[in-house]
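Hey, I'm writing a tutorial for new members on how sequence and structure tokens pair up, and I'd like a real worked example in the thread rather than a made-up one. If someone can provide the structure for the chain below, I'll link this post from the tutorial.
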Amino acid sequence: MSFSKDFIWGAASAAYQVEGAYNEDGKGMGIWDALSDGHVKHGDNGNVACDHYHRYKEDVALMKEMGLKAYRFSVSWPRIIPEEGVVNPKGIEFYQNLVQELLDAGIEPMCTIFHWNLPMWIYEKGGWYCEEISDYFAEYTKVVVEALSDKVSYWMTVNEPACFIGAGYIAGAHAPFESLIKGLDMSKPEARGQIAQKMAVLTKNTLLSHGKAVQTIRKYAVKTPQIGMALNGNIYTPWENTETGVAEAKAQTFTENPMVFNLGWWADPMILGTMPPALAPFVNAEELEMIRQPLDFFGYNCYNSNNYSEDWGSNEHVYEGQPRTAMDWPITPDVLYWAAKFIYERYQLPVLITENGMANLDFVMSDGKVHDPQRIDFLQKYIGGLEKVAEEGVPLVGYMYWSILDNFEWAEGYDKRFGLVHVDYQTQKRTRKDSSYWYADVIKRNSVE
């Protein structure tokens, strides 16, 4: 059997995208709560979302029905610490109840400590520019670990720093909707230097937060912890499976033009203890030692290879009628194979696919069901690549489909549906999609074949 017998099949979500209850039971405001007006399609927000805060038992029952082995959820920092120095017991109670519900259903809880919704009280101190943010993050981590670690073993410190820094502070597409590059003449060296310095501060503070969180988890966890980070970042796949083609793709992924959107920008300091050249002048040896903490797995959120990216201009490889998801992301079936292979070869850590999935044009049809054959075909090919790399001996922890529910897709609002379960946002009715039944069969067989 290609996947190991202890391979963990699961699905994922994020607090702000599913919970709702944005101002209930003592929760404070986060940057997505307070700053998203005018930045999200149709004026959508996460105030109610999927109402998971009140409906988590129903949602866990659906997970059990599917046979999920794990559920990767995130904790809302402003729900736990709504104001500086204030711990909200109701917030802690919610996550304790959720974890217990999962365990009672035979589902492994996997906890992500930070998934984008920074508390406003920290944002007002400078957000990820704030020099003290890594200490605040360590204090927050300690509260979460003391509350949950008697029942939680798997921990991810932060989710996708390339997005919450890159899209939040550089491009300005996500909260807090700031743009380093807006209004700057990038042809001038002083403008490029200004951006590089700010980008380095944001990166260093994020990496220090991760490092201090890892130390905190190891110090205070009751159950022996398994720790990683849920990274994203550009991944390139070979145009040809030749020695030269593979070497070129690896170089492009990790070493060519390293910047905040690239995988090596974050992973190299954390795991190898080496700094990208643009970051090195801003991080001293003591800080690097704090950043480089022993990890148990490499978590990676993977949707497509960047071979067809048009983020920085035209791409000669993009062709007319190219298969794309509803997010307009190219469909690249071999990306999980190459991502797991490249990551393991460089970092020598077991790989956990912390997110993978597709947005599709899903709706409840006249027979009352949600038929999503495109998603099934997508997963057959993508997970097939992961199965192939497992057969070749790359150690894999598991696979978390994104997402368990249709949910608030950040600046895209509610139009983009990634879920295994359809959510009618007017009634909150849940309907399992065909893909959820297909995935349940994969879990039973421990194979896509």
